[in-house]
Amino acid sequence: MTQNTSMDDKNNVFRMESTTTLRSESVDLNEKYNPFENRNVPHTTSTLGSFFHLLKSALGTGLLAMPAAFKNSGLIPGSIGIVLVAVIATHCVHILVKTSRDICEECRLGSLSYTDTCVKVFKHGPNRLRSYTGFVRNFVDYAMAGVCLGGTSVYVIFIASSLKNILDHFYPEHKYSVELYCAILLLPLVVLTQVRHLKFLVPFSIFANVCLLLTFIATCYYTFMDLSKAPDVNLISSVEQWPLFLSTAIFSMEGINVVMPVENEMSNPEHFLGCPGVLNATMLVVVILYAVVGFFGYLKYGESVLGSITLNLPEDEILALAAKILVAVAVFFTYFLQMYAPMDILWLRMKERISQKYHNLGQIILRTVSVTITVVLAVAVPDLELLIGLVGAIFFSTLGLLIPIVVQTVHKWERGLGKYSYILWKNALLLIVYIVVIVSGCYSSITKIIEKFI
């Protein structure tokens, strides 16, 4: 599912405590435990509401990058590849949720977060792996933080590219580099990232979502208006470019970090998995939208399509200009929402080492340094398409592919791997896919970065 996700709600909640209802009477340990009946969630979400939450997390700026992804694969491999990526992403979400439910039943808990699921699996897994529990918690938490920081660095270059595109049109005699726009963004990003309470960011989230919706509508209007095939469209692009397609697709569709909070807060969590189920219904809509936008966006603009299709919109029309401004504003405000989770994770690990009287200063320094890192990364790779490919290959594939398959394998190792150990063979195949994605994605992205900027 895509740190396209949208990336807009993908990381709002990372650490959710177990919500187990405690009973005063004695509990029969031989009685089958139902986690769903032991969740104490003050405000549950309906099945339809959960569908829209999950859909919203998967539809974000990554959707605008899909035409560039199709450019790296060609129309035919892109159409097939987007379906395969969706199937693999959906399966990995499924096994993570199923494993979380199984370990909740075994440990008699109502629900677990992503990180806590991984920790419990290792804690109750094979004896020789139990000593790695602390490492697993650190690895998953830092992978979460990496997804957020990597994703927000993409946001910085996204905003900077949009600003350059807009201002170059109005002031053609004063054209500045994307790197300069990234540097200019540093101060406002640092200042506004100092907001430490999520409730104060809610209005910005609503406003950003409205802006993105209007941008999508305007983009679709220009894409399908007078649709004609560009002369340089490839049915099949060079195989050397395919890894960039995979990395971008994973970045756009992978929203696994928001899955557990959504499932944990459902009023009818049994509706999440299964057929049709919330997960399958959401991913079906997502893959259709991504395939349509990617296919027809590339069909119209061909090899000239940019990292965000909004950058290809006309520069002299009010509607197109409004769309570019709206998406820049939307991503600007979304940046703070995405920074909330990694700041929370990192601060929880740092505050115990800092004196209470320096906590405020410590928070300021942490947030300033983190924002600076995202801006420096954006300046180092000032190409939206290549940065998305690099971040997708490293961080999003790790969180969305590697961790779920390892967690399921460890959990099932002593509990049964299925007939002919099919779970082990299936996960070994998925591990190969992960290795191919991270190695080829990194190689292709870094090679192109070196060719372009060094």
TrEMBL record:
Q: Which interval of the chain is the signal sequence?
A: none
Membrane topology listed for this record? Multi-pass membrane protein
Tell me the organism: Danaus plexippus plexippus
GO molecular function, one example?
Answer: L-amino acid transmembrane transporter activity
Q: What name appears for this protein in its UniProt entry?
A: Amino acid transporter
GO terms under cellular component: vacuolar membrane
Annotated coiled-coil segments of the chain: none
Location in the cell reads: Membrane
Main subcellular location of this protein, as a coarse class: membrane
Q: Which InterPro entries match?
A: AA_transpt_TM
UniProt keyword terms in alphabetical order: Membrane, Transmembrane, Transmembrane helix
Q: Does the keyword Cell division apply?
A: no
Source taxonomy: Eukaryota, Metazoa, Ecdysozoa, Arthropoda, Hexapoda
